[in-house]
Specification:
single chain, about 220 residues, OB fold (Dihydrolipoamide Acetyltransferase, E2P), 3 helices, about 45% strand
């Protein structure tokens, strides 16, 4: 792991970082705004990349808290938990299908055991006053997922939404109405319709090699 500092964001997935006495481009696997982390001179953590850019950003720092910035990681960890049957909150299942398409949407997982259980996983990096907030930027895709779940319940699906907070300093989760009122309204509709909405956080990150899920946190409206 390499420690550097943020200089500027070149585009959605590319940052300029300072490594000792030189500037480098680094891949950022996260489309969020990350305004509380991508601050000039703030510490970032990188690894060598096998893509077009020489480095990939895997984490950042907010105060004393290390934050995972790879928005793909929650999906990977949840899949491993599902395979090992440690996600009992979603009931029993015999098969797991990834990237399941239904109607015009694609969901992360379909769990099968007689019933059809959809599971969508969302990455959360923003925490304010110990409350995890999603989204940190307007998300039409996220809003559409929620509205599709509302309809799919009527088609016999069980719908589940899991927010994974990629840091340890959150005690609650709530939808970020200030950043995306449309998502907030869809969230309320989904909650009232019966979508099973859960949030879980990471254990305190010491290094970025051994990241684990911690406990579930209360979801607020």
């Amino acid at each position: 792991m390499i420690e550097g500092s943020f200089v500027k964001r070149k585009n959605r997935f590319t940052c300029i970082v300072k490594l000792k006495d030189r500037l480098e481009e680094a891949y950022l696997p996260n489309p969020g705004r990350l305004e509380e982390i991508l601050i000039p001179n703030n510490i970032l953590y990188l690894v060598p990349s096998f893509k077009k850019l020489p480095y990939m950003i895997i984490g950042g720092k907010v105060g004393d808290e290390l934050v995972s910035l790879d928005s793909r990681l929650p999906n990977k960890i949840v899949y491993e938990e599902l395979l090992s049957k440690r996600m009992s909150i979603f009931g029993s299942y015999k098969r797991i299908l990834k990237e399941f398409k239904v109607n015009k949407s694609k969901f992360d997982f379909l769990l099968l055991n007689g019933k059809r259980k959809l599971l969508e996983v969302k990455s959360v990096t923003l925490v304010i006053n110990r409350i995890g907030l999603f989204p940190d930027a307007p998300t039409e895709r996220g809003r559409r997922h929620l509205l599709d779940m509302v309809k799919l319940i009527d088609e016999g699906y069980e719908c589940n939404l899991l927010f994974v907070i990629q840091r340890s300093d959150a005690d609650f989760f709530k939808p970020n109405k200030e950043r995306d009122e449309g998502f907030y309204d869809a969230f309320k509709r989904a909650y009232e319709k019966g979508v099973n909405i859960q949030a879980i956080k990471f254990k305190k990150i010491v290094n970025f090699k051994d990241i684990e899920l911690d406990g579930f946190v209360k979801v607020l409206l």
